[in-house]
Amino acid sequence: MKKNKKSIIREDNSDGPIQVVVLGAGMHAKVVADVVMLAGYKVRTFLDDNEELHGKQLLGIPILGSIKLLGDLHLDPNLGAIVGIGDNFAREQFYRKLIEFDFPIISAVHPSAFVNHRVYLGQGAVVMAQVAVNVGTRIGENCILNTSCSIDHDCFIGDHVHIAPGAVLGGSVHVDDFALVGLGSSILPEIKIGKRSVVGAGSVVVEDVADNTVVAGAPARVVRTLGRDERPPGPGVKGKLFIRYM
Ligand SMILES: CC(C)(COP(=O)(O)OP(=O)(O)OC[C@H]1O[C@@H](n2cnc3c(N)ncnc32)[C@H](O)[C@@H]1OP(=O)(O)O)[C@@H](O)C(=O)NCCC(=O)NCCS
Fold it and tell me: Is 241 part of a structural domain of the chain?
């Protein structure tokens, strides 16, 4: 995907925190906004296509309107943006919108997270509380490293990946684009998790997982292989939590 090279210009010469718009105004967006603020930014507003949310507030911050308002907001050179949507595919769609508008995209790291200084963190990443990322790891664009997950040395994490709370990745694990590594799962060192694949909550993955495959259990076994146009399950119960974004 084309990289967004635009940076935030402080034309107002203010010393205040850089302001950020969060795309999405659901429960994941709430946590993202909290991390963004703890990372030293100010959240100016949320945008969400769910009209029922418009005019309401999240964390005391207004939900201004739909995503199309990006068209006006991107004219403000002091404003950055980040996507606050848990589902990998919906998150990628909104991330793409930010690229289209050439919006400066921020990454946010919770102050309690440990990200080794020899880690590459792609733009748009959100690193939640108590996460640990060890030396030599590469994290792609628009990823979620969720609460208390642990990613050891020399891992490769693709773009639009979600490592769920409490997941533990051994050294040199490869997680390909759009994969979801479920809550509390463990991935043994040097294992490869394929593109668009899903590792069920609590699984222990002891062998490579092919692309488009759902695995679960300890040791993890294939639950099903996804059809070519089939959407993988999202992060909610049976993938239902975030479908309104599509
Ligand atoms: C694995 C998962 C994706 C399966 O979803 P699914 O494709 O809709 O599959 P189903 O719910 O129909 O379950 C299929 C089978 O796998 C079993 N199964 C489902 N999840 C499982 C899990 N985590 N561990 C072990 N077995 C599991 C079911 O019991 C069922 O078994 P059965 O065929 O013997 O009845 C889902 O249960 C899961 O764990 N998602 C991860 C959620 C998560 O961690 N989100 C992050 C939130 S931040």
Answer: no
- How many domains is the chain partitioned into structurally? 2
Ligand 1: centre distance to CA 206 (Å): 17
Whole-model pTM: value is: 0.93
- Range with lowest mean pLDDT among 68-77, 174-183, 189-198: 68-77
Q: Is 153 a catalytic residue?
A: yes
User: What is the 85 CA–ligand 1 centroid distance (Å)?
Assistant: 21
Domain limits for position 190: 110-227
Whether 81 and 150 map to the same domain: the answer is no
Ligand 1, pocket-test mutation among 28, 144, 193, 223, most atoms within 8 A of CB:
223
Three-state secondary-structure class, residue 191:
coil
Among the residue ranges 141-145, 224-228, 235-239, the one predicted with the least confidence is 235-239
Using alpha carbons, list the distances in angstroms from residue 120 to 79, 157, 167, 170. 24, 10, 20, 17
Q: What are phi and psi of 103, to 5 degrees?
A: -75, 135
